[in-house]
Each structure stands twice: as structure tokens, then as C-alpha cells.
Design a protein that fits this description.
The chain is α+β, with helices and mostly antiparallel strands. The protein is built from eight helices and nine strands. The chain has a single domain, classed as Gcn5-related N-acetyltransferase (GNAT) (Aminopeptidase). Bound molecules: coenzyme A (COA).
Length: 222
């Protein structure tokens, strides 16, 4: 059967901007909303404090970590994300926990016909890690992408050493599809990454990832 990409709404791509959630997990109530200009100070404070925890998993970029994550860098990043969101290339969500900014989940590289595909990436403040925040955030974003956004496939690439991220994807039922050799320059070297993926068909029986988390007792809708 042919799939049609939903028609753009008022010049924007479907499903954006959006606010998703909340889902109660052991850490508190997780919700998603578009990143905001005023997230800069919190974003910078977390990212600079968490350099050792984040840098091993993120693409290498020119410039020092502290310089790239200064609060003064956020407005330009935010403008870029907002523009790309409006064009339909990305869905740049902030993750909030009990209303506080604690990380980001980003749907990127959105390709429309014929693929209807994108990748999902994420990070969260180390001080709230291990309590279900990212699992809930990714569940919300996957359901949204396969619902209002109208995508067919979502991929996540992860270094084999990143056991926490692999666990997030496994809990959500992402399928390990292969190993991309020297895929991404991370932490100053070209690193192998596993490719995990889901397609709409994978969720037809379960009724979505949010429902799956609720049924498993990992989250509660609020
Ligand atoms: C990966 C990351 C986003 C996970 O966020 P999180 O909010 O802690 O995720 P959750 O709490 O929903 O799930 C993490 C799971 O991994 C498990 N885990 C954590 N560290 C682990 C480790 N070293 N080995 C095995 N499992 C681990 C947790 O126990 C939890 O599983 P459980 O629910 O069965 O107990 C977070 O660790 C992070 O931001 N890391 C740095 C950036 C990053 O790696 N981004 C992803 C790049 S692919």
C-alpha cells in the first residue's frame, strides 16, 4: 500500500510544534516541548558539569567543550533548531522533569517520500539518570513520529560500549539491525555504531510505546 506524507499544516510540517506527555516514572513527570530560548542557562550548566558523562557518546566538534556549551552559544543553536523545525527537517524537543529542563530528545534527518524516515538522539542530566526519564521521552517521541508526524521508520545509532543507551532502546523494543563500521567521529575517533530501528508495523500489535510502558508498569499517564 502506498503511504502519503500528511499534508503540511499552515506551511509547517505535521506534528510540529508539539507538547507531549506527561508520563510519570520513578524520577517524576516526564514531558516534551520544543526547546526555548530561555533554556540556555540550564542547558549550559548541565552540559558543562556533565562533560565527562556526555563527551564519550557525542559527535566530535571543533572548539573546546566549555566554549561550545557556554550559555552565550545557545541562542544561535536555538535559532538553528527552530528554523530546521519549521522547515520539517528536525523535531527539537526539550525533555522536562516536573517542569524542569533536564535534557533533549531530537528527531533529526527527517526524510519524507519515499523513505518517511528519521533518526532519534537523546541525552539527559546525569543527576536524574537511571530512573526512566529517557525511556519515557523516547516512547513519547516515537509514538508522535508514527502518529501525527506520519513517519514510517525511526533509527537510533549507538556505540556498542554505551550500555545505558542500548538498554533504553532494548526496553522500548528497538530491533538491532546491524553494525555501522567507523560510522561517526565521536570523542576524537571514528567509532563503530550499532543501528537500532523501529517501523510502524512493529507497534501495530502493542498500540504504541507509551501504552507498552504503562502496561509494563514502567510509567503512568498523568
Ligand atoms: C543514555 C541515557 C540517555 C539514558 O538516560 P536515562 O534517563 O538514564 O535512561 P533510563 O533511566 O530510561 O534507562 C537507562 C537504563 O540503562 C541502565 N543502565 C545504566 N547504566 C548502565 C550500564 N553501565 N550498564 C547496563 N545498564 C545500564 C539503567 O539501569 C536503566 O535500565 P533499567 O530501567 O532496566 O534499570 C543517559 O545515560 C545519557 O544521557 N548518557 C549520555 C549521552 C548518551 O549516551 N546519549 C545517547 C547516545 S546514543
Amino acid at each position: 500500500m502506498a503511504h502519503a506524507y500528511p499534508a503540511p499544516i499552515a506551511g509547517r510540517h505535521p506534528g510540529w510544534p508539539a507538547s507531549l506527555g506527561g508520563l510519570r516514572v520513578s524520577a517524576g513527570v516526564v514531558a516534551l516541548r520544543p526547546v526555548r530560548l530561555r533554556d540556555g542557562r540550564t542547558w549550559s550548566a548541565i552540559r558543562i558539569r556533565d562533560e565527562q558523562y556526555l563527551a564519550p557518546w557525542e559527535p566530535s566538534m571543533p572548539g573546546g567543550w566549555a566554549q561550545r556549551h557556554a550559555a552565550s552559544e545557545w541562542p544561535a543553536r536555538w535559532l538553528q533548531l527552530r528554523g530546521a523545525g519549521r522547515r520539517g527537517a528536525v523535531l527539537p524537543f526539550a525533555i522536562t522533569l516536573d517542569g524542569r529542563f533536564v535534557g533533549q530528545v531530537m528527531v533529526g534527518n527527517i526524510v519524507r517520500e519515499p523513505l518517511l524516515s528519521a533518526y532519534v538522539g537523546y541525552w539527559v542530566d546525569s543527576s536524574v539518570a537511571g530512573r526512566g526519564v529517557t525511556t519515557a521521552a523516547v516512547a513519547l517521541v516515537v509514538d508522535h513520529c508514527f502518529g501525527r508526524v506520519g513517519l514510517h521508520r525511526l533509527e537510533a545509532t549507538v556505540r556498542p560500549e554505551n550500555l545505558a543507551s542500548i538498554r533504553v532502546l532494548s526496553k522500548l523494543g528497538f530491533r538491532k539491525e546491524g553494525l555501522f563500521r567507523r560510522y561517526l567521529d565521536v570523542d576524537s575517533a571514528w567509532r563503530d555504531h550499532y543501528c537500532y530501528a523501529l517501523t510502524v508495523e512493529d507497534l501495530e500489535k502493542t498500540g504504541g510505546l507509551t501504552t507498552r510502558l504503562v502496561m509494563e508498569g514502567r510509567a503512568e499517564r498523568v
